[in-house]
Specification:
Layout (H helix, E strand, L loop, with lengths): L1 H12 L3 H36 L3 E5 L5 E2 L1 H12 L3 E18 L2 E12 L17 H5 L32 H22 L15 H4 L10 H9 L27 E6 H4 E3 L5 E3 L6 E7 L7 E12 L4 H4 L2 E5 H8 L2 E2 L4 E4 L1 E6 L5 H11 L5 E5 H4 L1 H39 L1 H9 L4 H32 L1 H12 L6 H4 L10 H18 L1 H9 L2 H5 L3
Parallel strand pairs: 4-10, 5-9
Antiparallel strand pairs: 1-13, 1-14, 2-12, 3-4, 3-8, 3-13, 5-10, 6-7, 8-9, 11-12
Helix pairs in contact: 1-15, 2-13, 2-15, 2-18, 5-7, 13-18, 13-19, 15-18, 15-19
Length: about 550
């Protein structure tokens, strides 16, 4: 009992030990906070990567693909049918996206993906990343009548601002067609001769702009079309020769083949989270891509934007574009005319819950020629990125654990000073019959008490910081006037955090062990003191 009483007395009276407690507390709180944030980032990243990639990918090494994807899917079912929940064929090809903004052509490199709208969402979370609620239920490459979300695919992302999104679709397309028609009529009236044929009426630049409706402002997507049409010479459309011949295409009633764009291809996100769109659902774009065969030729066609894809992974949102697989097969020449059998470049495979995808991968690999086909899990496809996140977490843990180790050296120095200061007390205890083991346990218990107080308070502080991290972020941004967490960079609208009880446990246990180990040497020195030597100068 005297050991506990002495430990309690030392804790209450030795305020110098408060420095050790604070250092342990801050180290533990920092490690809990950092690990929670890194776990949140890793979880969000894995969830978004897996959302677009199926569990397994069976793919061809050639852009020409493999013939008869249905036959390949039947073979895969014979090999691992009990483990497979769904499959769908896709065509992946590099391509170029072109569209007009205020009379200027903008061209971007993309990955064009042909998908089956009926089966693609069954092998991934593709549907939940679309912007129209009906497309989230079942994808359609037909343009919808309005109803697009103005807060993105995530209803909880309150930071998203997309003014006018509810007007996208046929309403926007009809209004744009009417405005373009009125601009053309105005230009025709201005250019019509109002004098004898040998006289020319001076052109009045800006007359069409004077008749522009009030809605054609810099923030209105229709304004770009108006400014494009209101030029002295209309820009040459390099794709004009590919328009259907013998038919009159009315953009207010007709659409081209539908296309789903990655949202980062069509929008620029400002620092305040507002998306400024260059094209929206209802606009037409041009796609150029290589045909199948050797050597490949360049094919292109017009498409109508019917929706946006927003996975919140910039690598995907700024690169992926989706079109109907059948249309892409026709344009690339990937259909055998004699049998009407198509070609595909990959098959997306979803496994049943609880199935080890790596074992299924190995079974399929063994059944197909590796020189022609590759079979990968989604982790295989994104292994370097996931490994980089894991490595960053490990390095941060090592660095932050050194902070707690520094506090351990502080405990060591403080304990040596306490032993020197309490030499007389140790001598009195030993002269009264206290054993060396008893004196040793006093200081070890004292060190463990410091570690327990510091680690316990650090755990509470760390959990509170995780709980109110976003409010703290807002406060810091209000004080400094600078963005601490920019959604334009991360595409997160709040800092993701996950508290892992196991991680919290080993952090607290590690801090406690360090505090105990730091008190071993001072405790051994106190235990070895001889009572006569300790009281000689008293």
């Amino acid at each position: 009992m005297y050991k506990l009483l002495l430990c309690w007395r030392y804790l209450r009276t030795r305020y110098i030990a408060l420095a050790s407690v604070i250092s342990v507390m801050l180290g533990v709180a920092t490690m809990i906070l950092v690990n929670s944030v890194m776990a949140g980032f890793a979880h969000e990243m894995r969830d978004r990567i897996h959302g677009i990639l199926s569990d397994l990918v069976f793919e061809s090494h050639s852009l020409e693909g493999f013939r008869d994807p249905q036959w390949h899917m039947d073979q895969i079912r014979q090999i691992a049918g009990d483990d497979i929940a769904g499959m769908t064929a896709t065509v992946h090809v590099p391509a170029m996206l072109s569209f007009q903004v205020r009379g200027q052509w903008i061209t971007r490199q993309i990955t064009l993906i042909g998908v089956d709208e009926h089966t693609h969402s069954s092998v991934s979370d593709f549907g939940k990343f679309l912007q129209h609620p009906d497309n989230q239920k079942e994808l359609s490459f037909l343009l919808r009548e309005n109803g697009y979300s103005n807060h993105g695919s995530d209803p909880n992302a309150t930071g998203v601002v997309r003014p006018g999104a509810e007007r996208w679709g046929w309403d926007y397309r009809r209004n744009r067609a009417m405005w373009e028609k009125s601009v053309r009529e105005s230009q025709a009236q201005i250019a019509a001769p109002a004098a004898p044929s040998d006289q020319r009426v001076p052109r009045q630049p800006g007359a069409a702009a004077q008749n522009a409706p009030p809605s054609a402002t810099a923030d209105d997507p229709l304004a770009g079309a108006a400014r494009s049409a209101n030029t002295d010479a209309a820009p040459v459309d390099p794709f004009q020769q590919h328009q259907p011949q013998g038919t009159v295409f009315d953009s207010s009633k007709d659409q081209h083949c539908g296309i789903v764009l990655g949202i980062a291809l069509s929008a620029i996100r400002s620092h305040d989270g507002v998306d400024h769109f260059l094209v929206v659902p209802g606009d037409d774009v041009k796609i150029s891509f290589p045909t199948a065969g050797t050597p490949p030729k360049i094919a292109n066609d017009n498409f109508t934007v019917v929706d946006f894809y927003e996975s919140k992974m910039s690598e995907y949102d700024s690169n992926f574009v989706f079109v109907p697989i059948r249309r892409l097969q026709e344009l690339r020449g990937m259909i055998d005319p004699s049998s009407d059998t198509g070609f595909a470049t990959s098959i997306q495979i979803k496994t049943k819950p609880g199935v080890d995808a790596q074992k299924v991968r190995d079974k399929i690999r063994a059944a197909f020629t590796p020189e022609l086909y590759g079979v990968y899990t989604w982790q295989d496809k994104q292994g370097p990125l996931l490994s980089a996140v894991q490595m960053e977490t490990s390095v941060l843990n090592i660095l932050l654990f050194n902070v707690i180790a520094v506090s351990g050296f502080g405990i060591l120095a403080i304990f040596f000073m306490i032993v020197v200061e309490k030499t007389r007390d140790v001598g009195v205890l030993k002269s009264l019959g206290a054993s060396s083991r008893g004196v040793l346990s006093i200081f070890l218990t004292y060190g463990m008490s410091l570690g327990a107080v510091g680690a316990g308070s650090g755990m509470l502080l760390g959990l509170l910081l995780v709980r109110y991290l976003d409010k703290i972020r807002v406060l810091i941004e209000w004080i400094t006037g600078e963005r601490v967490f920019d959604p334009a960079i991360y595409y997160f609208y709040k800092i993701p955090t996950i508290v892992d009880p196991f991680t919290v446990g080993w952090i607290v246990s590690g801090a406690l062990i360090i505090a105990v180990l730091a008190s071993v040497l001072p405790a051994l020195r106190a235990a070895k003191l001889h009572p006569v030597e300790a009281l000689r100068y008293e």
